[in-house]
Design a protein that fits this description.
The chain is mainly alpha-helical and about 200 residues long. Helix content is about 65%, strand content about 5%. A hairpin with a 4-residue loop joins strand 1 (about 65) and strand 2.
């Protein structure tokens, strides 16, 4: 059953179809377009920031990008921080490994913004209960779970390769992201089940 339930705003409508004169539907579509633009801007901003950070790790040799045993530091000072190493002085293999790790750790955020943009674009078009909506919400949940797991995965890979420097990979925010991702995924599954139930009922009307 591939029936798509959407908000129809133009053309001939039945008595039960929502009207384009309804202020609630106009507000939903207007707000959704704004969020669609917002998530588009965030998508490009995070992508550009991730690319800039990866390139800086690879090619920047100045003293402003440093790494300690717990974190990377972008500082305005030219003096070496306590216990820090200038990233530009690291072997190229180490810099390449960390550049790739930075991209991997940023990928979930990029994909979350990608699916949120697509979801709110559908809302802006009046499509609210289609299978596409549910799939985008499910993928947001899955990428939240991925965001919680990627720091640990990168830490393991860097440790195995012998280039791990930043050992403070675990933060409580990762637990929050994991739990939230699971909740979002289950809610999307419930919405999908509800849509299928309504489609089955419509077959008997």
């Amino acid at each position: 059953m591939s029936q798509v339930t959407s908000l129809e705003f133009s053309g001939a409508q039945s008595d039960s179809a929502p009207s384009d004169s309804g202020p609630t539907y106009r507000r939903i579509r207007g707000a959704s377009r704004l969020f669609g633009w917002l998530f588009t801007a965030l998508l490009w901003a995070v992508s550009a920031l991730a690319a800039a950070m990866a390139l800086a790790m690879l090619f920047y040799t100045g003293p402003h990008l440093q790494v300690t045993s717990t974190h990377f530091e972008l500082t305005e000072h030219e003096t070496l921080l306590r216990g820090a190493i200038i990233v530009g002085t690291l072997p190229f293999a180490t810099k390449l490994a960390y550049a790739l790790a930075a991209l991997v750790r940023t990928a979930p955020a990029i994909m979350i913004f990608w699916h949120l943009r697509a979801l709110f674009r559908l809302y802006g078009q009046g499509v609210v209960f289609s299978q596409q909506n549910g799939l985008h919400i499910q993928k947001v949940g899955l990428w939240l779970v991925a965001a919680a797991l990627t720091p640990f995965i990168c830490h393991l890979l860097l440790s195995v390769s012998g280039v791990e420097i930043d050992h403070a990979w675990f933060h409580f925010e990762q637990v929050q992201a994991f739990v939230l991702g699971g909740l979002v995924f289950v809610i999307a599954q419930v919405m999908q089940a509800g849509r299928e139930i309504e489609e089955d009922r419509s077959q008997f009307v």
